[in-house]
From TrEMBL:
<feature type="compositionally biased region" description="Pro residues">
    <location>
        <begin position="364"/>
        <end position="377"/>
    </location>
</feature>
<dbReference type="InterPro" id="IPR003594">
    <property type="entry name" value="HATPase_dom"/>
</dbReference>
<dbReference type="Pfam" id="PF00512">
    <property type="entry name" value="HisKA"/>
</dbReference>
<feature type="compositionally biased region" description="Basic and acidic residues">
    <location>
        <begin position="12"/>
        <end position="23"/>
    </location>
</feature>
<keyword id="KW-0597">Phosphoprotein</keyword>
<feature type="domain" description="Histidine kinase">
    <location>
        <begin position="146"/>
        <end position="365"/>
    </location>
</feature>
<protein>
    <recommendedName>
        <fullName>histidine kinase</fullName>
        <ecNumber>2.7.13.3</ecNumber>
    </recommendedName>
</protein>
<dbReference type="GO" id="GO:0005509">
    <property type="term" value="F:calcium ion binding"/>
</dbReference>
<dbReference type="InterPro" id="IPR005467">
    <property type="entry name" value="His_kinase_dom"/>
</dbReference>
<dbReference type="InterPro" id="IPR004358">
    <property type="entry name" value="Sig_transdc_His_kin-like_C"/>
</dbReference>
<dbReference type="InterPro" id="IPR050736">
    <property type="entry name" value="Sensor_HK_Regulatory"/>
</dbReference>
<dbReference type="GO" id="GO:0000155">
    <property type="term" value="F:phosphorelay sensor kinase activity"/>
</dbReference>
<keyword id="KW-0418">Kinase</keyword>
<dbReference type="Pfam" id="PF02518">
    <property type="entry name" value="HATPase_c"/>
</dbReference>
<feature type="region of interest" description="Disordered">
    <location>
        <begin position="1"/>
        <end position="23"/>
    </location>
</feature>
<dbReference type="InterPro" id="IPR003661">
    <property type="entry name" value="HisK_dim/P_dom"/>
</dbReference>
<keyword id="KW-0902">Two-component regulatory system</keyword>
Length: 384
């Protein structure tokens, strides 16, 4: 038979085991709460607080007391919910209540609190900045539109008087006078294009884009028209222009807007290419896309600015310091038009120096464009 000492030892061992069993769940609960990154407390089914971690005590300066005072501790069984609670000391807390259940039985709720004061401050600052930026954008657009309209009226008069002065009915002009008038007319036309770009940019910002009129576009005829429109300026600058276009399918797009893009690229090529240079326009279908390249032998675009120049009012350093006129709007407008067609426009270096702009346009147009109709009757004009 076991001795009395053995019986006492066994009894003490059983008491220690039972004590560990009683301590283990509470210790596990405390350890679990301490591992949470938030201030946390567990509420029992009767509404009393069973445990809270140190973050909870520090957050509310409880000094050893336990409570759920911030935001209140409503009675009854809880469902999952969150709330943002402003405190008198200026802090803002995010409270989340998560009900605890096991096999359908309600065991209480886990309350967690996070200090979101700094996040709310940043949100308020960001909101104020957005309001200020929106107002500045509105004022900028209003000023641009007003200034553009005010400039357009006198420019129209200047161009009209240039045309009247060249009329033989008002008397013959000397060669020098004719050259002066041509210079006035040329610069007035350039100013009108700048104003048109400003107004178009303002309209794009105000309406979040452009409204395009999609239809069938014969790429070869569109390119020929664009080159012929700019041929006089290129010849005046002493440049040689080459157009090569492979036959291909009809493109679905807005011909007028696409010609604006081509006109801008050809004008830039003529502007930044010295005399005796070359401008080449090539186009060919590649799979489901048309690829159009406008290349020149001019000053080129530094590699680190080949993406940035497509932002409004941005020009490459060699364009700014070289005495070349411009606003930096043309390429931004061109990219917007190409993107509305579902395409891309990029710039790289041309063979032998200069810049090479590549436009890729889907033959079918963007997914939301209307289906193409029959193309216009072909003309008889051919490339020289």
């Amino acid at each position: 038979m076991p001795s009395e000492d053995e019986d006492a030892g066994g009894s003490r061992g059983e008491d220690r085991g039972e004590s560990r069993d009683r301590v283990r769940p509470r210790a596990l609960l405390d350890a679990l709460l301490e591992a949470l990154p938030s201030g946390a407390a567990v509420q029992g089914p009767d509404g009393g607080v069973l445990a809270a971690n140190r973050r909870f005590h520090r957050m509310f300066d409880l000094d050893g007391r336990t409570g759920l005072a911030p935001g209140g501790a409503p009675g009854g069984r809880h469902v999952h919910r969150t709330a943002e609670i402003p405190l008198p000391d200026g802090r803002t807390l995010r409270r989340a209540i998560e009900p605890l259940r096991h096999e359908g039985a309600y065991l209480g709720a886990l309350w967690t609190y996070d200090d979101i004061t700094e996040r709310k401050r940043r949100e308020r600052d960001l909101e104020r900045d957005n309001v200020a930026l929106t107002e500045l954008a509105r004022q900028r657009n209003a000023f641009t539109a007003a200034a553009s309209h005010e400039l357009r009226t006198p420019l129209t008069s200047i161009i009209s008087f240039c045309e009247l002065l060249t009329d033989p009915a008002f008397g013959a002009l000397t060669h020098e006078q004719t050259s002066f008038l041509e210079a006035v007319r040329r610069n007035a036309d350039r100013m009108q294009r700048v104003i048109s770009d400003l107004l178009l940019t303002t309209r794009m910002r105000a309406t979040a884009g452009l409204e395009l009129e999609f239809g069938p576009v014969e790429v070869d005829r569109m390119l020929l028209d664009a080159v012929l429109d700019r041929m006089g300026a290129a010849q005046e600058a002493g440049l040689f222009t080459v157009l090569e276009c492979t036959a291909g399918p009809v493109l679905r797009g807005d011909r007028h807007r696409l010609q604006n893009v081509l006109a801008n690229l050809l004008e830039n090529a003529a502007k930044y290419t010295p005399a005796d240079g070359r401008i080449s326009v090539t186009a060919a279908p590649r799979g489901e896309f048309w690829e159009i390249e406008v290349a020149d032998t001019g000053i080129g675009v530094p590699e680190e600015f080949r993406e940035e120049i497509f932002n409004g009012f941005v020009r490459a350093p060699n364009a700014r310091t070289g005495g070349y006129p411009g606003t930096g709007l043309g390429l931004a407008i061109s990219r917007a038009i190409v993107q509305l067609h579902g395409g891309t426009i990029t710039v790289g270096g041309a063979a032998g120096g200069g810049a090479s702009f590549l436009i890729r346009l889907p033959v079918a147009g963007p997914p939301d464009a209307p289906p193409p109709g029959p193309p216009d009757a072909p003309g008889t004009e051919e490339a020289p």
